[in-house]
């Protein structure tokens, strides 16, 4: 029943999206050509030409929405931001493809301004409609409609984490009936969810389905995996949708990279998109182009900084510090000198602290505004760093964190960056190293060129001024 209603909702989504696309296109046309104060007729195409294009735009956009997962059964779980991002991506791709087609067929009189208006209308209206739909669905689920009932098989960390997430997000429409487990005594309650009995009881529960179950979630502890095959066989016979939530989720990533080895599924512990040659090439091209552009843009700032450093304190202009980079290889990272010259042994002892007497007056400013990092553009051009990536650490800290922080060394499987996902999320300087590594790992496992552009964009607004820089 729930699955049928989900299909109905998806059909409604499809129908509403089709209306919004057509309405947005019509609004853009009339705003451009009927309500415009400028009565320009030179190069104007007839109305029939514009609306004939809609014959291709409408199905094309619906296919794009499908490709960007806007019609799957878990759109409500992803959240508003992810859904908006998918709408935005689909519309950007749609507009770009349409413009390329126009150039390909040499139709240069088609109004680009009208397409921009169509893009704005469509993104706004579709986002608004989906948020309204989300609120309607949320109210229905509060009223006990469109609910999925789930039984958990196995009490484990995975079971507790699953219960936590379900209860924190009632809008998902899940209700957990209880847990079956052989090692936990019946009657144990975790956040209102009771252990109902042994796993053997599953046979009778599935046969009668008196609990009106819609799904089975297998959440066995890792020591109980010998029972997994028989449990899956029972669930499959019942016809209920079954999912497996592994108890080793701390080991594998949320999006594991799987391979088909002649019918044998292989799960890689870590999926690193930048280990693929084509991705490496694209990122390197972006680094070179971006670094050259940055040198041109920031050359006046770098020149003024160099003059101020040289005239206000003694010592070299550029400070070179050993850091650990790609594949654990050490390299010399460049910075504008922001501290008084000191013996290397003293400098290596610790991070800079608040009101550190070693920092020069000019140094305080260039550290706070990240101007001291600009010479790393040269490291990027040399191939030792990237514009975006995990920030590199000194060898002594790498050795320390290697032992203290699980998965720390994974960050060295990609080039270190001038800025990164951790930095734009506020984890710079004297902040949690654990949180920094979590963000670095997210970046490494979820890298896309779009994510790099997003980080560079956020760096402009959030990454330059660092309140934790001393």
TrEMBL record:
Keywords on record: Membrane, Transferase, Transmembrane, Transmembrane helix
Cellular compartments per GO CC: membrane
Domain Bacterial sugar transferase: 283-463
Pfam families: Bac_transf, CoA_binding_3
Membrane topology label: Multi-pass membrane protein
Main location: membrane
Top-level taxon in the UniProt lineage: Bacteria
Cellular location(s): Membrane
Molecular function terms, GO-annotated: phosphotransferase activity, for other substituted phosphate groups
InterPro entries linked: Bact_transf, EPS_sugar_tfrase, Undecaprenyl-P_gluc_Ptfrase
Parts of the chain that traverse the membrane: 12-31, 51-68, 88-105, 111-133, 288-309
Protein family: Belongs to the bacterial sugar transferase family.
PANTHER family in the cross-refs: COLANIC BIOSYNTHESIS UDP-GLUCOSE LIPID CARRIER TRANSFERASE, UNDECAPRENYL-PHOSPHATE N-ACETYLGALACTOSAMINYL 1-PHOSPHATE TRANSFERASE-RELATED
Protein name per the record: Undecaprenyl-phosphate glucose phosphotransferase
Species whose genome carries this gene: Acetitomaculum ruminis DSM 5522
């Amino acid at each position: 029943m729930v699955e049928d209603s989900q299909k109905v909702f998806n059909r409604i989504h499809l129908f509403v999206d089709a209306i919004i696309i057509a309405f947005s296109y019509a609004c853009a046309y009339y705003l451009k050509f009927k309500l415009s104060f400028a009565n320009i007729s030179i190069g104007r195409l007839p109305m029939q030409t514009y609306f004939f294009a809609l014959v291709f735009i409408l199905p094309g956009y619906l296919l794009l929405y499908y490709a960007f997962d806007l019609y799957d059964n878990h759109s409500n779980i992803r959240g508003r931001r992810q859904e908006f991002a998918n709408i935005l991506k689909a519309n950007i791709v749609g507009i770009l493809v349409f413009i390329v087609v126009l150039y390909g067929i040499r139709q240069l009189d088609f109004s680009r301004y009208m397409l921009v208006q169509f893009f704005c209308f469509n993104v706004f209206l579709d986002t608004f409609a989906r948020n309204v739909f989300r609120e309607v669905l949320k109210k229905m689920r509060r009223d006990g409609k469109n609910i999925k009932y789930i039984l958990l098989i196995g009490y484990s960390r995975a079971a507790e984490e699953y219960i936590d997430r379900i209860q924190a997000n009632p809008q998902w429409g899940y209700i957990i009936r209880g847990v079956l487990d052989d090692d936990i005594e019946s009657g144990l309650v975790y956040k209102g969810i009771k252990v109902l009995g042994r796993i053997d009881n599953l046979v009778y529960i599935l046969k009668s389905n008196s609990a009106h179950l819609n799904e089975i979630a297998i959440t066995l502890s890792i020591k109980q995996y010998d029972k997994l095959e028989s449990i899956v066989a029972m669930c499959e016979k019942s016809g209920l949708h079954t999912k497996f939530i592994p108890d080793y989720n701390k080991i594998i990533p949320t999006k594991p990279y799987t391979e088909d080895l002649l019918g044998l599924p292989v799960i890689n512990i870590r999926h690193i998109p930048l280990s693929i040659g084509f991705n490496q090439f694209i990122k390197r091209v972006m680094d070179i182009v971006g670094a050259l552009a940055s040198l041109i843009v920031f050359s006046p700032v770098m020149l003024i900084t160099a003059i101020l450093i040289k005239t206000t304190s003694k010592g070299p202009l550029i400070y070179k510090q050993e850091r650990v980079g790609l594949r654990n290889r050490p390299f010399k990272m460049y910075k504008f000198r922001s501290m008084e010259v000191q013996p290397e042994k003293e400098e290596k002892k610790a991070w800079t602290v608040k009101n550190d007497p070693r920092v020069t007056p000019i140094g305080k400013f260039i550290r706070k505004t990240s101007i001291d990092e600009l010479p790393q553009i040269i490291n990027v051009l040399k191939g030792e760093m990237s514009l975006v990536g995990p920030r590199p650490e000194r060898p002594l800290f790498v050795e320390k964190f290697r032992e203290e922080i699980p998965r720390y060394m994974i960050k060295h499987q990609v080039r270190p960056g001038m800025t990164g996902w951790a930095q734009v999320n506020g984890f710079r300087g004297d902040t949690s190293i654990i949180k920094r590594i979590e963000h670095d790992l997210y970046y490494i496992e979820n890298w896309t060129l779009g994510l790099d552009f997003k980080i560079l964009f956020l760096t402009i607004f959030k990454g330059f001024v660092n309140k934790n820089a001393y």
